[in-house]
Amino acid sequence: MPELPEVETVVRRLRPEMVGRAFAQVRVTWPRTVATGADQLCRTLPGWRVAALERRGKFLLFALARATAGRAVPGDGGEPAGALLIHLRMTGRLNVEPPGAPAGRFTRVAFDLDDGRALHFDDVRKFGRVFLVPQAEAVTGMLGPEPLAEDFTLAAFRRLLVGRARQLKPLLLDQTFLAGLGNIYADEVLYRARLHPLRRTDTLTPEETRRLHRAIRDTLRKAIEHHGTSFDWAYAGGNYQELLNVYDRAGQPCPRCGTPVVRTVVGQRGTYYCPECQARASR
DNA sequence: CCACCGTCCTGGCTGC
DNA sequence: TGCAGCCAGGACGGTG
Fold first, then answer.
1. Is the CB of residue A159 inside 7 Å of nucleic acid strand B?
2. SS3 content of chain A, % helix, strand, coil (to 5)
């Protein structure tokens, strides 16, 4: 499922195709996909140009500007459109289709572009969401910091943990704590940091906190580096697994010590870890 | 403040 | 071979 590295990969792939393009007609085949209202999206988006495409957490963020007057500020003067945001959730995919391409079986929203092509939002499970808002912050305002941002330092991470007493796994999945980690990378981060998923933040030693901070950044950076290829494999059902140390590897040997990887459920989520490397108590 | 549960969805898997 | 039933999982809202 798309987490920060996958979304980053999609953004990098789409950016050269989308920036500068203007939206024409929008077609919605599953209205609930559009969290801010399908009718409003279809009415409002045509005529807006993509000024920039960024990632915030697991959101794709299309910053909009008026297609005609280059000076218009999105969201200014009560303008109804300013930012288009898309969250892929479990199975969402975005592709730029050539002119005349028909909507696929799972296409939920089709955005026609001014060059005749179309951006298709396909989503088998219909969990993905599209937002059109005057200000992106209306959607992203609740998110915690970007784990790969320069200012997400060890000191900043320590400050984030002050006064909290939470299990590590649910904490890493909490987007208001930190933006971008999902179930796969949360497990991979904890494996790399050699910390048990149920360890509580208030029991971490300074050294363990340092390891966790480093593991978050290293795991995500490495995943982004490798995602030119692995992302496609994941969706093609290929051996995406080869990049993963513990996720979905129950019973297989830990790459570090050979102990069989264990699967449990933490906070309703399948959770994989090495019972030897990630012992419950600190050591 | 924190944990836990139900909801949304459907392809793919399991088991008979 | 066919099919019923279950599962995964991100985010959110409600409850304890």
1. no
2. 35, 25, 40
Q: What is the mean pLDDT of residues A118-146?
A: 93
Strand B contact at CB of residue A149, distance < 7 A: no
**Model's pTM, two decimal places?**
0.91
Task: Write b or e for each residue in A215-246: b if 16 or more Cβ atoms lie within 10 A of its Cβ, otherwise e.
Answer: bbbebbeebbeebeebbeebeeeeebeebbbb
How far, in Å, is the CA of A198 from the C1' of nucleotide B5? 19
Segment A240-260, tens digit of pLDDT: 566 789 998 888 999 999 999
How many residues are present in chain A?
283
| A58 classed as catalytic | yes
Across-strand partners of A264? A271
- For the CA of A245 and the C1' of B15, the distance in angstroms is 30
Is the shortest CB-to-strand distance from A32 to strand B under 7 Å?
yes
Nucleotide nearest the Cα atom of A91 (by C1') = C9
CA angle A215/A217/A222 to nearest 5° reads: 95
Structural contact between residues A249 and A261, judged by C-beta atoms closer than 8 angstroms: yes
Instruction: Establish whether A93 is a catalytic residue.
Output: no
Q: Mean pLDDT throughout A98-106?
A: 92
Sign of the dihedral through C-alpha A163, A183, A109, A113: positive
**First CA to last CA distance, chain A:** 33
Residue A77 scores a pLDDT above 90? no
How many Å apart are A32 CA and C1 C1'?
Answer: 37
User: Contact A129/A160 with Cβ under 8 angstroms?
Assistant: no
Please state, as a whole number, how many other Cβ atoms lie within 10 Å of the Cβ of residue A95.
16
